[in-house]
Amino acid sequence: MTLSFTYLRTTNPGLHIQRQLPIGQVSRFGRLLRNHPLLWMLFCLLCSAGTTWSQCFTVSSTIAVGSSPVHIVMADLNADGKLDMVNGYYGIIT
User: Fold this and answer.
1) Given 3-state DSSP classes, what are the helix, strand and coil percentages for the chain, each rounded to the nearest 5?
2) Domain ranges in the chain?
3) Splitting the chain (94 residues) into consecutive groups of 10 residues, what average pLDDT does each group show?
């Protein structure tokens, strides 16, 4: 199972930079989540309360759960090009 993310640069409304990355290349923690999709869903649900939408980079992904797609958003808080996967800035858009 490969989960793909799309990077969107949101600081300039006229400029959108997109690229695809497998979740396993995002971080070592991503490899664990890639192999356990139910753990991934639980993690995102638990972290959704801390989501912020005003960061320079957001990452969105769609995962099919049964017949319902779930959109997941993550943020790069310090704009270093790496996702901050430990601090809880995750969310689910329904």
Assistant:
1) 30, 35, 40
2) 4-93
3) 38 36 48 65 53 38 45 50 42 32
